[in-house]
């Protein structure tokens, strides 16, 4: 088990508070190097401690963003949770896992999405690199169940096309700036 830094703990607590306040989808913003993966993995663990029968879907747009958190989850929590991966390689697909790490483009194919949903809709959907969440295929996955809670994590809460993130996220959980992380000794100077 890893001990979160104070600002990471604050982000997890704030996300829980937002969801408990009946908001569907908080967006955690932390700079690159701020530990977004550790934050959402801790969120997953805490959520499943409170809701052991729930399913969680973690979406990413690149294979390394699927595999890296899945490996980190195993390193942090061992085999405490049944984890699966749905990616283009398809060699480890586990549609019934309690925690599924999925490549968005692979999952949205009708065949794979139907297989995943056959085990039930996710109770929580986590989007890594969440600034992509308002793009077409992301929106299709997020619409799988309008009752699913959604947690986004990103370092860049804005899009180059100027499209806002409000349609996917309803509350911003803003972490420290890069400068603050440098001054606190968590990141090296430029």
Please, could you describe this protein's structure?
Helices cover 37% and strands 17% of the residues. The chain is an alpha/beta fold and 190 residues long. The chain has a seven-stranded parallel beta sheet with strand order 3-4-2-5-6-1-7. The longest helix is centred in the first third of the chain and has 15 residues, at 6-20. The radius of gyration is 16 Å and the shape is globular. The mean pLDDT is 87.
Structural class: alpha/beta
Rg (C-alpha, Å): 16 Å
- General form: globular
Mean pLDDT: 87
Helix content: 25-40%
Order of secondary-structure elements: HEHEHEEHHEHEEH
Strand order of the largest sheet: 3-4-2-5-6-1-7
Number of strands: 7
- Terminal Cα span: 30 Å
SS strand fraction: 15-25%
Keywords for this entry:
about 190 residues, single chain, 7-stranded parallel sheet, alpha/beta, globular
Lay out the secondary structure.
Blueprint (H helix, E strand, L loop, with lengths): L5 H15 L5 E4 L6 H15 L5 E5 L2 H15 L5 E4 L12 E5 H4 L2 H8 L6 E5 L7 H7 L6 E6 L16 E4 L3 H6 L7
Helix pairs in contact: 1-2, 2-3
């Amino acid at each position: 088990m890893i001990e979160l830094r104070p600002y990471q703990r604050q982000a997890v607590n704030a996300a829980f508070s937002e969801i408990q306040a009946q908001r569907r989808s908080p967006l955690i913003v932390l700079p690159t190097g701020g530990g977004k993966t550790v934050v959402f993995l801790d969120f997953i663990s805490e959520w499943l401690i409170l809701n052991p029968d729930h399913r969680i879907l973690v979406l990413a747009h690149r294979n390394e963003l699927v595999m890296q958190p899945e490996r980190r989850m195993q390193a942090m929590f061992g085999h405490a949770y049944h984890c699966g991966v749905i990616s283009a390689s398809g060699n480890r697909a586990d549609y019934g896992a309690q925690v599924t790490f999925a490549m968005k483009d692979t999952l949205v194919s009708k065949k794979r999405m139907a297989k995943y949903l056959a085990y039930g809709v996710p109770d929580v959907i986590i989007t890594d690199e969440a600034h992509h969440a308002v793009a077409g295929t992301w929106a299709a996955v997020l619409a799988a169940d309008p009752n699913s809670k959604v947690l986004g994590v990103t370092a860049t809460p804005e899009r180059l096309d100027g499209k806002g993130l409000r349609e996917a996220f309803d509350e911003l959980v803003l972490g420290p700036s890069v400068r603050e992380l440098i001054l606190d000794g968590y990141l090296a100077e430029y």
